[in-house]
Amino acid sequence: MTSMTFGQKKFIPTAPDKGSFPLDHGGQCRKLMLFYMRCLRENADDNSACREESKAYLQCRMDNDLMAKEDFAKLGYITERARHFFTPDELPGTVTLHTDEEEWTSWQKRGDPVLHIELGKWADLLVIAPLDANSLAKMANGLCDNLLLCTTRAWDPAKPLLFCPAMNTRMWDHPITGAQIATLKSWGHREIPCIAKTLMCGDTGLGAMAEVDTIVSTVRETLLEQG
């Protein structure tokens, strides 16, 4: 009896060419990442207590060409209604802001790249902050009538999506809100829960978006978990 052993090619994934924080597919820096995460857990997520671990981890990423080729804050997009709350002039000059209008003006003919598809390919992680009651309802039902919702509709479920609910307390308390959030979470999306405070309308109660520090901390934690 004879036997034959067929060699198997080892597939080594590589980090994406673009992205604010490319994933460490090869695991080159995983050990240092785990040291850093453990330090954060042991110090109540106080990054100042983990500077050496952070420095070692980031240095490893730089040495292995895994650091961002673009600033973390380089990409963002808004719905038309979001313009009511700020003006683009308030944003740092390094931020590229995409609008619903670009979804159509950037596409001219068959074969041209489609903005919401390209954004989904580009990003390693998507954060929706805030996610209001209207967009939550649309997202939970698969509607996609603007750039943001088209991007979420075409989002790769293997990549993290974080959402930060924000709405009036009366909307938050409506039974359908919990059901819609549960739908998003059932798809693997991660909720950054709202908090209680005085809202824009003057009411006080649950429904305010999570604090920015909490959102940033959760984003960092999620990226580290992705490795």
TrEMBL record:
UniProt cross-references to InterPro entries, sorted A to Z: CHCH, Flavin_trans-like, Flavoprotein
Source organism's superkingdom? Eukaryota
GO CC, one annotated term: phosphopantothenoylcysteine decarboxylase complex
Report the transmembrane regions from the record: none
Keyword vocabulary terms for this entry = Coenzyme A biosynthesis, Disulfide bond
Which Pfam family would be a valid example here?
Answer: CHCH
Q: Which GO terms describe its molecular function?
A: FMN binding; phosphopantothenoylcysteine decarboxylase activity
Q: Which GO terms describe its biological process?
A: coenzyme A biosynthetic process
Q: Which family does it belong to?
A: Belongs to the HFCD (homooligomeric flavin containing Cys decarboxylase) superfamily.
- What's the name of the protein? Uncharacterized protein
Q: Which organism is it from?
A: Anopheles stephensi
